[in-house]
Amino acid sequence: MRLDLTPLLEGLDLYIAAVRRGVVEGVGAASLQLLTDSIMQTPTVPLKWGITRNSGSVFVNSKLVTTSEGIAAQYLQPDRPPNLNPKPNKTFRMPKSKTMVRGVVGFNTHYASWLHEGLDITFSEPGSGAKYLEYKLANNARTYMQIVVEHIRKQLKKERGVRAARKALKGKTRAIHAAATRMD
């Protein structure tokens, strides 16, 4: 018996590539949602002059996805000291991996980590406070994972090769079953 699995294997390669694209897109979208949530949901990134809120960045596998400049622009105070301007990170390096997709959300002020960890700080703006990223990760984890899943689904729907692989497998399954029954 001979069985050509080429169409099936090609379809599976396309399927795997679609899943990877979906994961990368999904992690980017979920990380963007985390950045937005840290600015909008309590406890929020502390306000003061809006510097920290406007210094946020999102990276996926070392690639810049976006910054908080557009999201938080309305919080930037015109009366801030002239030397205080938000500067989101535009570059970030992380170890490369063939099997992991990493999303990084951060704020680029020298005091951002101090504010994040500052459980003993009295914040001037109601609703702002410490752990503005950590609380969102804990409370919204399901939402963020659902965002990733939705992006994977979208990529799989786009991939015509997946349908071809299923079709090829369906036909091959019948042939394999028929051959196996004849061998008995």
Walk me through what this model shows.
Helices cover 48% and strands 8% of the residues. It is mainly alpha-helical. Helix 1 (6-40) runs antiparallel to helix 4 and helix 1 (6-40) packs across helix 5. The longest helix has 35 residues, at 6-40. The chain is elongated and about 80 Å long. The chain starts with 5 loop residues before the first helix and ends with a helix. 30% of the residues are buried.
Quick gist of this model?
The chain is mainly α. It has helices at residues 6-40, 112-117, 134-139, 141-158, 160-183, and strands spanning 56-60, 63-67, 103-107. The protein contains five helices and three strands.
For the structure shown, list the relevant keywords:
184 residues; mainly alpha; 8% strand; 3-stranded antiparallel beta sheet; 3 strands
Write the layout of secondary structure elements.
Blueprint: H1 6-40, E1 56-60, E2 63-67, E3 103-107, H2 112-117, H3 134-139, H4 141-158, H5 160-183
Antiparallel strand pairs: 1-2, 1-3
Helix pairs in contact: 1-4, 1-5
Give a quick account of the main beta sheet: strands, pairing sense, barrel closure. 3 strands, antiparallel
Low-confidence stretches: none
Cα(first) to Cα(last) distance is 14 Å
State the total count of DSSP E strands. Answer: 3
Morphology call: elongated
